[in-house]
Every structure is written in structure tokens, then in C-alpha cells.
């Protein structure tokens, strides 16, 4: 789909996957006008396919587009385009229990612009790929390191939207962490340097007794759709969920820590290293709370339990 600045997107068409052409002075290449989304399609036992809350991705893209001075597809256009793309790639949706089809919608300033300004033209496209587990650990606990020098977001910046540059900003710390054997990086706020923010591509939760705490949405972390869903699932399971400033020190006496995201689903954290000190959680890192929430969420996403929340969209 294409659209001019200030205009509306017209209906797009299916195209075979391949390279795309861009003007060297395209807004996305020069000034980072790019946003993406990520969602998954699961195959049910009866062969039908389930999408999980695609309208939430559409809304988040629209909010991000507003911040990045870009036009965005309407919620209907977005959801219809996702459905059409998934149905056209139905054969790539893995069988039940064997993974999912990852769906990547991309919005970019494709028009040429030399002086700093919003691009005159925008493109929206979607590509898909079958995927398995995100971390090489599979569903085993991951090991995080707290980063206290580099930050991924600043107040008033773009950390709260899914813009491409945020991901370039985390590559250095993430690569260094992986080279040392960690799974990923846990970021702190850049003002007080003591409150938890999020991991490079997922949100974080800290469990103490019956209370589950997660950093509040305040513009510097991504409002994860899995985060929002897990908060509802956890409350429905009788947990008390607090969205607030979570000091890094709370990691020291937490019962469990886990991450959430479309790609990582619910990943238990086995250990966190902070200023050279390593804290480990639970028996081999597998916490009962993360297990319980993982089980409810995945069974819902795969159509194995009743979708009382009305979160899934079924395609046949
Ligand atoms: N934080 C960041 C920085 C992310 O990239 C993601 C993945 N989209 C998340 C959190 C989790 O968001 P969601 O649950 O919507 O996938």
C-alpha cells in the first residue's frame, strides 16, 4: 500500500517476496522514518489459523506513526492486510505445536527527501516467516545482564513506539552481552539509573509472593501487547498486578522474573547479573507463576482453551 504525506492509504496488493526498490534519499534511509509491528499466527488442530489481537498492533502502529510524523493504515486496513497476507501464505503456518508464522508489518517513509523533513510518500508492507523459539535456550530460562551505561530510550524520545532506530540503539549492548554468554540485556531508566525498563525486545515482570510488578508505561518502554494480555490473565488467575516504578534492587529478593513479548511469549529468567553480581531464580529458573501464565496464554493463542476474552481472530 502507498500513501502521500497527509493522505490516506489505498488498498494494496499481494506480491511475491523479494527485494524492493528505494530511492537513496528515501526518508526511512536518511532520517529513520520507519515503524514495524510483530504478530504471530498459530495453526489449530482443525487446520484453521488464529491471529492474536491484531487490532492492537494496528492501534500501536497508528500511535507510533503519529509520533514519527507518518500517515498510517486504518485499523481495518491493517487487520485486513494481515489476514490477506496470512491466508495467501497458509502453507507456511507450521502444524500445531511446531511453531508459528511470524508476521512483520512495516511502515516507512519511502519518498525522497534531502533536507530534514517528513518524507512526501509512505509505503506499508507485510512479510511473513515461519518461526520457532526466539531465544536459543528455547523455553528454558534466559540469563540477562543489567546495562547501566547505555540506554535504549529517554523521556520525550521515541522509546515508547516501535520505530526502527530503537533497535539499532540496542545492538551494541546486546552484542556485547551475547558475546559474554548472556541471552539479552535488561535496561534501566536513564534519569535515576535505578528503575527497570525492559529487555531489548520484551517487557519484564518481577514476582514476589502473590504480587506481580512490571514497569509502568511512561513513554520509555514499549506498551507490549503480550504485557497487556498477561496483566489481564494474571489478574483473572487471582494475582495482584502492579504497574509502577520497579527499582532494580527488587531483583535481589524476587521469587521469579519473566519476560513477555510476541516473539518470546513468556520466557522465565534464570538469572540476572547486575554490577558483577549474579542473582538466580527458582529451581533451574523455572518459576511456577511464569509457567502458569505461559500455559494459559499459549493455550489461548493456539485455540486449546475457550477464548473468553475474545482476543483471537480465526481464519480458515
Ligand atoms: N519491548 C520491545 C522493545 C519490543 O520490541 C517488544 C516486541 N514487540 C516488546 C517489548 C513486547 O511487545 P509485544 O508483546 O507487543 O510483542
Summarize the model shown.
With 316 residues, the chain is an alpha+beta fold. The chain is 24% helix and 29% strand. The site of 4'-deoxy-4'-aminopyridoxal-5'-phosphate (PMP) has 13 residues, from α5 and β13.
Descriptive report:
This protein has helices at 27-31, 54-67, 75-88, 164-179, 225-236, 288-301, and strands at 2-4, 34-36, 39-43, 49-52, 100-109, 121-131, 142-147, 184-188, 196-199, 203-208, 211-215, 240-244, 256-261, 265-274, 277-280, 312-315. The chain is of the alpha+beta class and 316 residues long. The protein has 2 domains: 2-131, Aminotransferase class 4, branched-chain amino acid transferase, N-terminal domain (D-amino Acid Aminotransferase, Chain A, domain 1, 2-Layer Sandwich), CATH 3.30.470.10; 142-301, D-amino Acid Aminotransferase, subunit A, domain 2 (D-amino Acid Aminotransferase, Chain A, domain 2, Alpha-Beta Barrel). Strands 7, 8, 9, 10, 11, 12, 13, 14 and 15 form a 9-stranded mixed β-sheet that branches. Strands 1, 2, 3, 4, 5, 6 and 16 form a 7-stranded antiparallel β-sheet that branches. It starts with a strand and ends with a strand. The mean pLDDT is 94. Bound molecules: 4'-deoxy-4'-aminopyridoxal-5'-phosphate (PMP). 4'-deoxy-4'-aminopyridoxal-5'-phosphate is lined by residues 38, 198, 201-203, 222, 224-227, 260-262. Residues 38, 198, 201-203, 222, 224-227, 260-262 line the site of 4'-deoxy-4'-aminopyridoxal-5'-phosphate. It catalyses: L-valine + 2-oxoglutarate = 3-methyl-2-oxobutanoate + L-glutamate; L-leucine + 2-oxoglutarate = 4-methyl-2-oxopentanoate + L-glutamate; L-isoleucine + 2-oxoglutarate = (S)-3-methyl-2-oxopentanoate + L-glutamate. Its cofactor is pyridoxal 5'-phosphate. This is Branched-chain-amino-acid aminotransferase. It comes from Gossypium harknessii.
Amino acid at each position: 500500500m502507498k500513501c502521500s504525506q497527509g493522505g490516506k492509504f489505498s488498498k494494496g496488493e499481494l506480491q511475491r517476496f523479494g527485494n524492493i526498490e528505494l530511492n537513496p534519499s528515501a526518508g526511512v534511509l536518511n532520517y529513520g522514518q520507519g515503524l514495524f509491528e510483530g504478530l504471530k499466527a498459530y495453526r489449530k488442530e482443525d487446520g484453521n489459523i488464529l491471529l492474536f489481537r491484531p487490532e492492537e498492533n494496528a492501534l500501536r502502529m497508528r500511535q507510533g506513526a503519529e509520533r514519527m510524523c507518518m500517515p498510517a493504515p486504518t485499523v481495518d486496513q491493517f487487520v485486513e492486510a494481515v489476514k490477506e497476507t496470512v491466508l495467501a501464505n497458509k502453507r507456511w503456518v507450521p502444524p500445531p505445536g511446531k511453531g508459528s508464522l511470524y508476521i512483520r508489518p512495516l511502515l516507512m517513509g519511502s519518498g525522497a527527501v534531502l533536507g530534514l523533513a517528513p518524507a512526501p510518500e509512505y509505503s506499508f508492507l507485510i512479510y511473513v516467516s515461519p518461526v520457532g523459539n526466539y531465544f536459543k535456550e528455547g523455553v528454558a530460562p534466559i540469563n540477562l545482564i543489567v546495562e547501566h551505561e547505555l540506554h535504549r530510550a529517554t523521556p520525550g524520545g521515541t522509546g515508547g513506539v516501535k520505530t526502527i532506530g530503537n533497535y539499532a540503539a540496542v545492538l551494541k549492548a546486546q552484542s556485547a552481552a551475547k558475546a559474554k554468554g548472556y541471552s539479552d540485556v535488561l535496561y534501566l531508566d536513564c534519569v535515576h539509573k535505578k528503575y527497570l525498563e525492559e529487555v531489548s525486545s520484551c517487557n519484564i515482570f518481577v514476582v514476589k509472593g502473590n504480587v506481580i510488578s512490571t514497569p509502568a508505561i511512561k513513554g520509555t518502554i514499549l506498551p507490549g501487547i503480550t504485557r497487556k494480555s498477561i496483566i489481564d490473565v494474571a489478574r483473572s488467575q487471582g494475582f495482584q498486578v502492579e504497574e509502577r516504578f520497579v527499582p532494580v534492587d527488587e531483583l535481589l529478593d524476587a521469587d521469579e522474573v519473566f519476560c513477555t513479548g510476541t516473539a518470546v511469549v513468556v520466557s522465565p529468567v534464570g538469572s540476572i547479573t547486575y554490577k558483577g553480581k549474579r542473582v538466580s531464580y527458582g529451581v533451574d529458573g523455572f518459576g511456577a507463576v511464569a509457567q502458569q501464565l505461559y500455559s494459559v496464554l499459549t493455550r489461548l493463542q493456539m485455540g486449546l482453551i475457550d477464548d473468553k476474552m475474545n482476543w483471537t481472530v480465526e481464519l480458515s
